[in-house]
Amino acid sequence: MSTSETSRYVRLRVDLVLEIDGPAEVTDAALGRIDADTSMPEAERVHARAAVAEDSAEALAYLVEPFDVVAGVPGVDLVQASWSTEEIDYDPDAEEWDLDDEDEGWDDDSDEGDRPAGD
Question: Which of 45, 76, 91, 101 has the smallest number of Cβ neighbours within 10 A?
């Protein structure tokens, strides 16, 4: 039997490039989320608030909820999620960012259905 016939688990990889044009709004929203999280221990809250205040990418990570991506998909349960953010140098005209080139950015062993956005 092939893996696709026996496995119930699928890894979905999504790579987004976002432009933060309102860093203060992102930071304020992240601080609000941290303050509203009643399950977060105080020591962790202090660390999180400092990290968010210093870095917009870190603030964004506190606002992204992977569950929301699949919440409305019938027959799917999110089992595990991880995500990270980082500031990058982005040039939309650079070849490395060209998502229309199927050979760029995709593993050779990926499923046939894998396609960059827009294909």
Answer: 91
